[in-house]
Write a structure and sequence with these properties.
This is Cyclin-dependent kinase 7. InterPro entries: CDK, Kinase-like_dom_sf, Prot_kinase_dom, Protein_kinase_ATP_BS. It holds the Pfam family Pkinase. By secondary structure, the chain is α+β, with helices and mostly antiparallel strands. The chain has one domain: Transferase(Phosphotransferase), domain 1 (Orthogonal Bundle), CATH 1.10.510. It has 3 helices and 10 strands, in the order βββαβββαββββα. The strands form 3 sheets. The chain has a 5-stranded antiparallel beta sheet with strand order 1-2-3-5-4, with helices on one face. A 3-stranded antiparallel beta sheet has the order 6-8-9. A two-stranded antiparallel ribbon has the order 7-10. A hairpin with a 5-residue loop joins strand 8 and strand 9. The radius of gyration is 17 Å and the shape is globular.
Length: 180
């Protein structure tokens, strides 16, 4: 049993905590999913399975957060992942050198390229979901909105495909479709 130690953040579907793996004694991140975030239990089970499947398909890769375990009880579900020290959101006020920025962007693009090469679209790349560890390794996390790319997925008007509004493509912000 992993006991959460410190809250790290939260979102629409749950909260993330830092914990210690009792077997390895290593820090881990535990994403506790809130079943009430979905309209019914069937939707919650589907969303959990979808997130786990997408993340498992993308691992192992050095720039994708590694899934360790999934724990489900009658009242909650948790996804246990590798721990990273911070997110890009928390380091945005730091002044990074051009070399450091290149390193971060290179790793981020390698991770995105890997995910896309598997036919998966993340749909929520934003500073909160880009993790950084003490060694400077960048990892993409939170596959809760990820899905398989299909030829018709961008047809029509569906700006909710990318949840974090500030990171939506400009065409979605003005209401244009991808085919215009």
């Amino acid at each position: 049993m992993i006991n959460a130690l410190k809250p790290l953040g939260g979102g629409a579907f749950g909260s993330v905590y830092k914990a210690i793996d009792p077997v390895t004694c290593e820090p881990v991140a535990v994403k506790v999913l809130d079943p009430s975030s979905c309209s019914n239990q069937k939707n919650f089970a589907f969303r959990l399975q979808q997130e786990v499947t997408m993340q498992e398909m993308c691992c192992p890769h050095p720039n994708v957060c590694q899934l360790r375990q999934v724990s489900t009880t009658a009242s909650s579900s948790a996804i246990i992942m590798d721990f990273s020290d911070t997110t890009l959101r928390h380091v945005r006020d730091l002044v990074l050198s051009e070399e450091e920025l290149r390193c971060v962007m290179s790793q981020l693009l390698l991770g995105v390229h890997h995910i896309h090469s598997l036919g998966i679209i993340h749909r929520d790349i934003n500073p909160r979901n880009i993790l950084l560890d003490h060694a400077g390794t960048v990892r993409i996390a939170d596959f809760g909105l990820a899905g398989r790319a299909t030829p018709d997925m961008w047809l029509g008007d569906s700006p909710d495909r990318v949840v974090t509004e500030n990171y939506r493509p400009p065409d979605m912000l003005i209401g244009a479709s991808a085919t215009e």
